[in-house]
Task: structure prediction
Amino acid sequence: MSYNLLKGKKGIIFGALDEKSIAWKVAMRAKEEGAEFVLTNAPIAMRMGEINKLAEACNAQIIPADATSVEDLENLFAKAQEILGGKLDFVLHSIGMSPNIRKGKSYGDLNYEWFQKTLDISALSFHKVMHVAEKQDAMNEWGSVVALSYIAAQRVFPDYTDMSHAKALLESIARNYGHRFGNLKKVRVNTVSQSPTKTTAGTGVGGFDAFYDYADKMSPLGNASAESCADYCITLFSDLTRMVTMQNLMHDGGFSYMGISESVVEMLNKQS
Result:
């Protein structure tokens, strides 16, 4: 169902890879709600994914950009404004990758050059995105910038290794740039801490199935789906959330406030 929440709004959506991607779902919902936007991803990710299919469905243009490159981002924001015919109202940062996780490095055996890449790709890119947007004065007043996070920023999930630090840094950047952007342009900046989600990136983390099932059993509402996360992001882009900024917003079916649940107790009793 469409409510025209984003009618007349323009934006950039980072990180759509395939139909399982949260960014893909956000793009589809943004289109339904009346938004115009450009899609972007790193050239290597574009070769691996199906972004052309999404662009066709959303009548959106694609601008390749490496989000760790300020030069690429400058080109992206300049071209996006040219294509869309004005400044932007929303940006989605849905970017995360750890070479250490991809190559099976444990937390006690991290490759530090790869660790730096994890931080650059998954967190510092968020700062670079907003830095370029600010320098180009690319955002309209009362615009909204949202990045996707995970509760491993606050709690220990051993197989999440260096990505946990990237998410903690991402959330810190959101708070600090939220303060800056709010003063400058009334732009709000938030992160959404999503349930474990069966995306291509998510399922690449070791032990994913186990903590997906655990989170589902712990959450009174169950795990939040990619589709429901997209709905939430749409509300954050809309004018209905104008006074929400600098927040890490838990979108996890209640998992973040649970100590233990009946389902988990039952499961443990069966195993004992």
The chain has a mean pLDDT of 95. The two ends are 47 Å apart (CA to CA).
